């Protein structure tokens, strides 16, 4: 480490820094765990199969089936939440029983579909029998249900006001992501890839060194090829 023209700061030589980084001992098992976790979280099934085969990893560990996760996501995005619920129950009937908020979100999409078909009686019955039991003491879910039912006052569900409300409530992409996170959590897999956490922690540490401690260090910016940038 050498002093810069600014006496309040010190800087690291890039060669010294690189040598120190290369000297860090990371086991193959640790690297494989990070890669495997990334592939699982991002549902990259074919790559995961090849990686496990090449790395001789244990494939008997209980993991959320990627093909099921993909089918569930596709069903939600296409509006077929009934099929999505069936697929989740096929994995494990207890998943939705203990995740009543996710169950509510899924069934709310179906409720909105019924309301859009102008079937008021069926919509009210569905809300009473399927959604109300999911609310429990969750005030926000109760508000969501009331907001969804407010669509019934619109005789024309294609009017701008009704369409705006539908867009606000019928966010299938958000629901699909939450369902996938729920499935990963159920199988005790962190829904946030370890690699993402490592990079965020690295950025935080770099920020602390260059900020609070006033040290100029090479920063890893070109993540795709591990390139260092010097200050």
Automatic annotation (TrEMBL):
Superkingdom field: Eukaryota
Q: What protein name does the entry list?
A: Glucose-induced degradation protein 8 homolog
**Residues forming coiled coils:** none
Q: Which PANTHER family match?
A: RAN BINDING PROTEIN 9-RELATED (PTHR12864)
Database matches in InterPro entries: CTLH/CRA, CTLH_C, LisH, Ubq-SigPath_Reg
Q: Where is the CTLH domain?
A: 69-122
